[in-house]
Amino acid sequence: MFTLSGAYTGTFVAMLFGGVIAANWSWAWVFYIPGISALVWVVVCFYLTANSPSTHPTISYEEAKYINDNMDQAISRKQAIPWKDILTSLPVWATIVAHFGTDWVVFTLSTELPTFLVKSLGFRVDAAGVLAALPWLTTTISVSGTGFISDKLTEKYSTLCIRKLVMALSFTIIVSSFLLITLLDASYRALILMCVIIVMTASSPAWASAGVNQLDIAGRYAAILMGISISIGSTPGFLAPMITGYIVENPHLKREWNDVFIISILIFALTIGFYMIFAAGELQIWALNSADEYQHILDSSISSRNISERNSLIEKNIYDLTDRLKAEIHAENNAE
Question: Which of 1, 238, 255, 290 has the fewest CB atoms nearer than 10 Å to its CB?
């Protein structure tokens, strides 16, 4: 999740300076500067990327060996991809639907927040740009922190339990904050802005949980699943602004914006509800290489439904084996 936080960081920087640039220079430079930055990034990307760790120009031998030794088996070009199993898998669709619902919240706020701040809440254009950037700063921190905490928790609890826990917490915070926004009058603009920041901050753990869940269930097919999920999940990027434009005829009236937020609540509730029912935390059968790998997943302490009992059983077996060895050694000594 740390690498994906770059997208949030870039949005934060663009929002932070976008309003100032538009107010003092020209709106065109809001696009010129990111375009030039992208060209610089392309040059760096061509130099720093490689087909494999062993062909990377700057990687050390130790790091390349570590990555190769711990990397899952790649999909062969001649290997058939189980499209039918993927497209008919409810856990797969659970991650896609959750991705769609989370992106609906994110795109609604990211595309409409500057207009909402200026037209409905009365902020200046340059100030609105800076204020619209704040949610992306907290989101950057949140997505990285959630990934770290989730990894630690999966050492003690099942993967599915942690994924659903993160989703449930995100859902509760987002819905509560959206409802508070709809209840507040436009004069409470500082409190409304705080609620918007909370919504965006809480949306990143939900997105991170659904995104990482694709690795949990798909393994080496996770990249394919991510491509499908992003394609479908990104449709709110044009659907949300289109519906908002249809609903909000007068952007100065906050009551019209309330309808937009209520729609976001309903869509998010339906999609997260679907995820909570059909999500899975273990590698699916169609993503396995062999029956032995399937048995390994079943025996894994992380995928166990009751990890504490399994650990207690392992400790008991170790103690029993130790006592048996001591008894055998004692018997041999007495025989001598």
Answer: 290
Lowest mean pLDDT among 27-31, 103-107, 255-259, 282-286: 27-31
Per-residue pLDDT at 15:
73
Q: How far is CA 153 from CA 96, 103, 162, 275, 281, in A?
A: 24, 25, 7, 20, 14
CB neighbour burial string for 134-156, b if at least 16 within 10 angstroms, e if fewer: bbbbbbbebbbbbbeebeeebee
Whole-structure pTM value:
0.72
Gap between the Cα atoms of 297 and 290, Å rounded: 11
Cβ contact 102:206 at 8 Å: yes
Distance CA 251, CA 115 (A): 8
144/2 Cα distance (integer angstroms): 5
pLDDT higher than threshold 90 for residue 313: no
> What letter represents residue 183's amino acid?
L
- Residue recorded with tokens 């209520």: 262
3-state secondary structure of 96: helix
Mean pLDDT for all residues in the chain: 80
pLDDT in tens, 100-137: 999 999 899 888 888 888 888 888 876 777 777 778 88
Do 15 and 132 form a contact (C-beta atoms < 8 A)? yes
Query: Are the C-beta atoms of 170 and 205 separated by less than 8 Å?
Result: yes
Residue in 315, 310, 302 with CA at minimum distance from that of residue 156 = 302
CB contact at 8 A, 142 and 205: yes
Return d(Cα 305, Cα 332) in angstroms, integer.
42
| Of 214, 241, 239, 242, the residue nearest 228 (C-alpha) | 214
Query: Amino acid identity of 210?
Result: A
